[in-house]
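ERR on first pass: missing label on line 2. Operator R.T. fixed the label and resubmitted. Corrected input:
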Amino acid sequence: MYRDRIRLPSLWNKVMSAAEAALLIEDGMTVGMSGFTRAGEAKAVPHALAERAKVTPLKISLMTGASLGNDLDKELTEAGVLARRMPFQVDSTLRKAINAGEVMFIDQHLSETVEQLRNGQLKLPDIAVIEAVAITEQGHIVPTTSVGNSASFAIFARQVIIEINLAHNPNLEGLHDIYIPTYRPTRTPIPLVKVDDRIGSPAIPIPPEKIAAIVITHQGDSPSTVAPPDSDTQAIADHLIDFFKQEVAAGRMTNKLGPLQAGIGNIANAVMCGLIDSPFEDLTMYSEVLQDSTFDLIDAGKLSFASGSSITLSGRRNADVFGNLEKYKDKLVLRPQEISNHPEVVRRLGIIGINTALEFDLYGNVNSTHICGTRMMNGIGGSGDFARNAHLAIFVTKSIAKGGAISSVVPMVSHVDHTEHDVDILVTEIGLADLRGLAPRERARVIIDNCVHPSYRQALNDYFDAACVLGGHTPHILRDALSWHLNLEETGRMLAV
Amino acid sequence: MYRDRIRLPSLWNKVMSAAEAALLIEDGMTVGMSGFTRAGEAKAVPHALAERAKVTPLKISLMTGASLGNDLDKELTEAGVLARRMPFQVDSTLRKAINAGEVMFIDQHLSETVEQLRNGQLKLPDIAVIEAVAITEQGHIVPTTSVGNSASFAIFARQVIIEINLAHNPNLEGLHDIYIPTYRPTRTPIPLVKVDDRIGSPAIPIPPEKIAAIVITHQGDSPSTVAPPDSDTQAIADHLIDFFKQEVAAGRMTNKLGPLQAGIGNIANAVMCGLIDSPFEDLTMYSEVLQDSTFDLIDAGKLSFASGSSITLSGRRNADVFGNLEKYKDKLVLRPQEISNHPEVVRRLGIIGINTALEFDLYGNVNSTHICGTRMMNGIGGSGDFARNAHLAIFVTKSIAKGGAISSVVPMVSHVDHTEHDVDILVTEIGLADLRGLAPRERARVIIDNCVHPSYRQALNDYFDAACVLGGHTPHILRDALSWHLNLEETGRMLAV
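pass 2 clean. output:
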């Protein structure tokens, strides 16, 4: 029944169990696996590897596109398999191991991993494990719900294990556009000039003799965990849509806006949902992950085309979208994350990048990753790829967290992922700060006035006023700059009530 | 005698004194001036403007390419002319005014200023003042020793004042390559695929009727202030050249290396000089500023081609290079800084970017701009344009400053310009840390072991050990993280002796 999915008959004898295939992975190897934002990850082989490691310990370096679903990072962590992990994760068990210093985590811009592999700056994967809907007549790999880094992993690895997942709609074939930049010094421009351009091939081209094993699976992707908009995320969406209207009125954008990028998560999803009832038309996305809101916007006739590297849907939308893929297919493309996030393309297209901040400071520096400067949350993901080169680099967050114990706006961020040079617009449910063309002292004023929760406004005003007395282009009081974080660690609150 | 420099005779009647031309600049205007790293700045008109402001106060927003020479930023600051200044400066008087909050300074990636103008995100210049060697038969402007932002300023401004500087060799004509990206949504790839590609025109195309005034000048550029290599900068150069040899041996680069970018200043200049006696051949530069070392390398037969946005030379090399320009002209091109620093091109070409850090921390974050997190030094310049997208992002600094009172390696930088995600290699005179593919705790180990001055090594080890006990992906002790900077402010030393 799966032979129609393996269209090169000479590969039929490579079909084996996940446990057998996992034996190809040896202690000390570097392994590249498919998977991006819980979509299209290899499922059976990593599970079998974790099972095996419970009996016979082994350690690997694991590279993926981004986060895995189906609790695979948890399983692999608990089985002690992960020595090194890159470039992104979202699993709470793995996060604990990273913060304990037990797993070496390399937190990278998602566009850069395969570029560093290509240049020999990271160790190439010994083996790649890639989920596919089919293998073509040429032995090429047709990915499933994500492309991520799968193409380059398969090209760089000496051996490739393919998981043919029968749970995915075979009609996914044709959705992907695999383009790999040429090597230097003869690298040429990436010929992508419109969101819907197709510049590559529909499958990953590798010599079929590299395919060492094929495993048949039936397990679906994990559903996304996105929550419906609440009053705060709705307020953030409203502020941003008002801002877009002003940009259109000022002639800086048309009513089509620019190609939209939205990070994963509730706030970005809420902003995208907010566009359904907006006056904007003929919208496009050039993003990493396509979430429920992408398809809600298509259904509403608002979104003409969406380019991403993965599709991650809730239980609600999953069957509906993938069961009716022909309805959406001509409006979608999935690309390698190197291309979906490429600085060349992001700058050329003029992306509007909307990403979530953990916290930001008076001067517009953004922390996306580290709680109190030390403990990794998930990773920077693609936020830096987009923010640096976007037409508009927008960061969103609720103004407070933990019932008000934490202010998301602080005197000085405890870790910097996006510098003051790279941040244009900050939005909380309180309001929006437009930092473009402002000096640091001016930024502090608009941030305090527009984004800070009322319960922290006086304290931030006091800090800023006192710092200005000391002077400086970016006034700070070094003794107090991180005191809010220190209070949080010691008392559970940033400020005494 | 200057009429051969103004080849469109209808413009001859626009010649006037600098004082008359400066009257075109009105209070409250935004003014875009030529000038990049003390090369090719408009000289007479800003001087006349400062003189006028002493009598009749006025304020402007001043945009340039980068830094100005001939003490113009000092004069303009002292005359109270500068309300706002972007995107870079190096003047001590202006610096004081910035740090006092008297001049609003917008510290930008040098590739981004004209992109933000083009998109209407910054106020367009009302008037541009551009130094030129000639005006062509079409009324187009031939720049002098820098291109910087001059082309876009002239295109965007309603009126243009041209300073024809007779002190410059007219043979500079033909050196420049003016390419302006198209507007979105129809922007196309920048067609530059080799360092020596010419993709634009030799002069800045504007309608001649925009030329409102022409001023004749005779004043040279300020000489660069670069110092010859000392034992520390020589040691930094040696470490880096050893590293390049290892990269070649590992097959990650050829003996031609990649296109080199070097920031302005003594250390980068010393590194470039160090290449004269290296085994590398047929080198190229794709940089912002071409300094003495560029021409020393050409003379030594080591450097085949250099692309920059300006030429800034010492007194020693100035007459020699510009007096014998035909000797160098086929090995040089000057481009708009948007193109010399463009993320698309930097990533495509695989630049080796060498820039100076003010300080860096245990985890590889780099501060390029702020003393003790508050006081602006010069600005980020192009370092971020190159570091983010380079094949190798290298930062160099001496391990200590002020006779040992300051360590350039600190627990936590007091300001972040380049995040841990963007920094590959750190070098001091002590040694070199290769951070590629390392997790934060691993980076701390190689930085302490390789880059820290012996007098600070134990203290940093102690900090790191104690922070690791507390845990975290990026271990820190928040109470102590900025204590070295606080000590410096309060006692003049980072650590008690």
